[in-house]
């Protein structure tokens, strides 16, 4: 945040909490829908797709309201409140199917009021000439906050769900959950494999398979409700950050009132900008279409077609504690070898390298030759790659900026 306006840090942390909450939903929404309501993949996928369609489409409504009223900060505040209400609602165990759909719509509506307008406010921070040259770097930092939240979300969702399952005397087993739903719906012709899984889970022969599978599904889906409860807590933190520090963000309506002069851009200048914007629209449509397969087809693929058990080396990256130890060691190494690091930074880097390396080695030794992994965790790798690559990209563009050859924003895209 060096040299950046103070409002960037507020937007960064408010958005990071909301995105943490958002990516908890992405990590487990389709699995929750299947577990709680016994939906087939195509039906759960349709709900997931409609939810994300509304999440982005309703941003048009949020932008329209903010533009007409010029109350961007007020629109964002209302959006956070609505999202919080929706996430509290979906966190309640035992909801009917229709109420869950209503909760998802409420979340999408709140997101529509929040998401685009916060980005607009971040852009307004750089309308002043002294900050204009920092705009692109600021958005890179801003989106790094998004990806930090996205990195922790899958492990948090899994941790809460597994904790609840354990408290009820169960452990996670995707096969048992799927077969249980098929059995309860009367679609399972042969229950032999289900019986074996249930006996193994219970540690003794299960006499009443109907009751056991019903109880397991209830515990399994309630674990996801608790994960949604964690998402609601994250939204509450974002709300508090925004409420207490929103004064550091620009007030668009006040800016317009102070500057009464409005310059109408000639069509000859406006036309190429609109064309460029439409081309960006075309690119991002396909980008987000593919990106959000993370929570749908790629999640199904990870659950159904990847190994459920891995060795200790691979497990280092699927367990948050060991992955964080590796990250700490890498960051420490960077500070240690970086030429610009001061002596105190090199000492801190050496300490981080030693501590992170020692912890990583300890965790490696504690893992067995075969460790169970869960499909939601695959979603943490994309955001952590972005977090690590963002400083490198910023450094390259900063270097080009000093040389006077930094490309335009559309060229960067």
UniProtKB/TrEMBL annotation:
GO terms for molecular function: peptide transmembrane transporter activity. One of its GO terms (cellular component) is plasma membrane. PROSITE patterns: PTR2_2. GO terms for biological process: oligopeptide transport. It is a multi-pass membrane protein. InterPro entries: Dipep/tripep_permease, MFS_trans_sf, MFS_Transporters, POT_fam, PTR2_symporter_CS. The chain crosses the membrane at residues 20-39, 45-64, 76-95, 101-126, 138-157, 226-245, 274-291, 316-335, 347-364, 384-401. The keyword Protein biosynthesis does not apply. It is found in: Cell membrane. Keywords: Cell membrane, Membrane, Transmembrane, Transmembrane helix, Transport. The keyword DNA repair does not apply. PANTHER family: PROTON-DEPENDENT OLIGOPEPTIDE FAMILY TRANSPORT PROTEIN (PTHR23517:SF15), RESISTANCE PROTEIN MDTM, PUTATIVE-RELATED-RELATED (PTHR23517). This is Major facilitator superfamily (MFS) profile domain-containing protein. The lineage of its organism: unclassified sequences, metagenomes, ecological metagenomes.
């Amino acid at each position: 945040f060096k040299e950046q306006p103070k409002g960037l840090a507020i937007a960064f942390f408010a958005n990071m909490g909301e995105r943490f909450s958002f990516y908890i939903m992405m990590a487990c929404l389709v699995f929750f829908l299947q577990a709680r309501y016994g939906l087939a993949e195509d039906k759960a996928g349709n709900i997931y797709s409609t939810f994300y369609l509304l999440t982005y489409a309703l941003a048009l409504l949020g932008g329209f309201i903010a533009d007409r009223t010029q109350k961007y900060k007020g629109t964002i505040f209302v959006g956070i409140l609505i999202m919080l209400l929706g996430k509290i609602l979906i966190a309640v165990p035992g909801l009917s199917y229709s109420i869950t759909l209503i909760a998802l719509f409420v979340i999408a509506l709140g997101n529509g009021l929040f998401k685009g307008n916060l980005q607009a406010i971040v852009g307004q921070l750089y309308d002043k000439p002294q900050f204009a040259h920092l705009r692109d770097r600021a958005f890179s930092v801003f989106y790094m906050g998004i990806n930090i939240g996205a990195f922790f979300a899958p492990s948090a969702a899994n941790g809460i769900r597994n904790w609840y399952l354990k408290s009820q005397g169960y452990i996670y087993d995707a096969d048992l959950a799927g077969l249980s739903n098929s059995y309860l719906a009367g679609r399972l012709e042969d229950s032999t494999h289900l019986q074996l899984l249930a006996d193994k889970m219970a540690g003794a022969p299960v006499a009443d398979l109907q009751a056991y599978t019903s109880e397991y599904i209830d515990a399994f889906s309630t674990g996801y409700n608790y994960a949604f409860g964690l998402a609601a807590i994250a939204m509450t933190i974002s709300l508090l950050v925004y409420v207490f520090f929103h004064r550091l963000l620009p007030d668009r309506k006040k800016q317009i009132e102070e500057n009464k002069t409005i310059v109408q851009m000639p069509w000859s200048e406006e036309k190429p900008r609109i064309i460029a914007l439409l081309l960006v629209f075309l690119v991002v449509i396909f980008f987000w279409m593919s990106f959000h397969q993370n929570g749908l087809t790629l999640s199904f693929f990870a659950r159904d077609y990847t190994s459920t058990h891995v060795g200790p080396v691979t497990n280092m990256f699927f367990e948050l504690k060991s992955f964080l130890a590796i990250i700490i060691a890498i960051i420490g190494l960077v500070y240690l070898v970086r030429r610009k690091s001061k002596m105190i930074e090199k000492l801190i880097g050496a300490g981080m390298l030693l501590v992170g390396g020692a912890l990583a080695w300890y965790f490696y030794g504690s893992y067995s030759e075969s460790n169970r992994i869960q499909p939601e965790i695959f979603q943490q790798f994309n955001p952590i790659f972005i977090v690590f690559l963002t400083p490198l990209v910023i450094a390259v563009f900063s270097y080009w900026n000093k040389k006077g050859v930094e490309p335009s924003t559309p060229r960067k895209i």
